[in-house]
Amino acid sequence: MLALGLTSCTLPQVSAESRLFLDVSLEFLGEYDLPKQDFDGTPVGGLSAIAYDGGRDRFYALSDDRSVLAPARFYTLNIDWDQPRRQIQAVQVEDVTLLRDQTGDLYARNSIDPEGMALTPRNTLLISSEGVPRADALPFIAEYDLAGNWLADLRIPSRYLPDPEGEVEQGIQENLGFEALTTNWLGATGSGGNPAWVDPFRVFTATESALIQDIHEDPAVPPRNRFLHYLLDASQSTLISEHLYPLSLAPFGGLFHGLSALTLIDQGGHFLSLERTFGLTGFTVKLFQLASGGATDTSSIPSFSGDVGGIAPIRKQLILDLTALGIPLDNLEGMTLGPPLADGGQSLILVSDDNFDDNQINQFLLFRLDIN
Questions:
Q1: pLDDT at 253
Q2: What pLDDT score does 8 carry?
Q3: Nearest CA-CA partner of 337 in 319, 325, 350
Q4: CA distances, 11 to each of 8, 204, 334, 343 (Å)
Q5: What is the dihedral of CA 136, 175, 337, 21, to 10 degrees?
Q6: Helix, strand or coil, per DSSP, at residue 293
Q7: DSSP 299-324
Q8: How far apart are CA 221 and CA 216, in angstroms?
Q9: CATH code of the domain occupying 22-371
Q10: Helix (H, G, I), strand (E, B) or coil at 160
Q11: Domains of the chain: which residue ranges?
């Protein structure tokens, strides 16, 4: 009889956290600032979201203009890569596409606040609007073709909307709604997805900060955002689950703080999230990895304002505090996986919203993303 003595072996110690998260690293490659310009009679600015179309090798950048300076729109961008140096050489605006509502009309002034955008496997765009509560414009998530025509709306649960009777304070806070939006389609990038996709596919969005009914009375308690998971097929959209996203506390002196972007990085429920703060010293931006596996479905929980000790939230791990880059940061709000780099690495692009302010810039940051 052969006895194997395992007690003398030294086995590698693997923490629970290392099993939960992917081994992710970022390398900063460079910055490009888009010059102020008009295109086809529209001011190019307010770039709050970006998506890469691998089939056309073009980027779509969403303006958050509320149909005030020009009709609601997105731009088609050609990014000229200096591949040997792995840097952005130039960003050229090639086209502007105006969005149209269910009636086929351009969106009226203050009827939309476009903030999030994601490309789908059926060659359409999902766009989220935070709404404009003071103008009675409700938040929404809608699907559009690449010509800007409305196709369908995703169902938004009533808890995200104002109480129609006015009896309960609830819903998205002003300018803190659906800003982060992503799909599970990785086929358009160098991320190992399958371009020959078949419905259904998944869509993920989250509120920029807590809903009104989820605000805790103690300001020292971090905001509790809501994260939504949809399943879309050719005929309908279904809300599969919701989860608690624990937003970090704003740094000292922070005035405006929230979750501004999400990007899925694998099919196992791992994401990148971008949290952005504007404060007395300028902009602070942090990039996290998320692990959604094991998070509690919170769709039946009416409020997060009390004890949430029994709820397993989405887990977060800090990847990079962008202040460590040593460059001035602007209002970074958009994020997408881009094409492969010359060495085969995965590109990641961040873009900033200049708020149509002459003192701000539309800033593009390029990274190499490694997932081991």
A1: 77
A2: 41
A3: 350
A4: 9, 38, 42, 35
A5: -120
A6: coil
A7: TT----SS--TT--PPEEEEEEEGGG
A8: 7
A9: 2.115.10
A10: helix
A11: 22-371
Looking at residue 255, what is its pLDDT?
83
**324-357 pLDDT tens trace:** 999 999 999 999 999 999 888 899 999 999 999 9
Distance of CA 150 to the CA centre of its chain: 21
**Alpha carbon distance 235, 339 (integer Å):** 31
Other beta carbons less than 10 A from residue 356's beta carbon: 16
Nearest to 156 by CA among 136, 175, 141: 141
- Stretch among 14-28, 185-199, 298-312, 329-343 having the lowest mean pLDDT: 185-199
Residue at token pair 């097929």: 233
DSSP 313: P
201 exposed, middle or buried (CB, 10 Å; 0-12, 13-18, 19+)? middle
> How many whole angstroms separate alpha carbon 289 and alpha carbon 3?
44
pLDDT at residue 86, as a whole number = 74
Long-range CB pairs of 163-172 (<8 Å, 24+ gap) are 168/213, 169/212, 169/213, 170/211, 170/212, 170/213, 171/133, 171/211, 171/212, 171/213, 172/130, 172/131, 172/133, 172/139, 172/207, 172/211, 172/212
> What whole-number distance in Å separates Cα of residue 117 and Cα of residue 123?
13
Q: How far is CA 340 from the centre of its chain?
A: 20
Half-sphere exposure in the Cβ direction for 307 (13 Å, CA)? 2
Amino acid at 346: Q
Higher pLDDT, 197 or 122: 122
CA distance 364 to 92: 12
In whole angstroms, give the CA distance from residue 82 to residue 90.
Answer: 9
Cα–Cα distances (Å) from 351 to 41, 140, 292, in that order, read: 22, 23, 25
- Retrieve residue 47's tokens: 């770039």
Q: Among 369, 362, 371, which Cα is nearest to 65's?
A: 362
Phi, then psi, of 40 in degrees rounded to 5 = 55, 40
The three-point CA angle 16-250-316 to 5° equals: 15
Residue 165 pLDDT class (50, 70, 90 cuts)? confident
339 residue type, one letter: P
Which residue reads 């006895």 in tokens?
A: 3
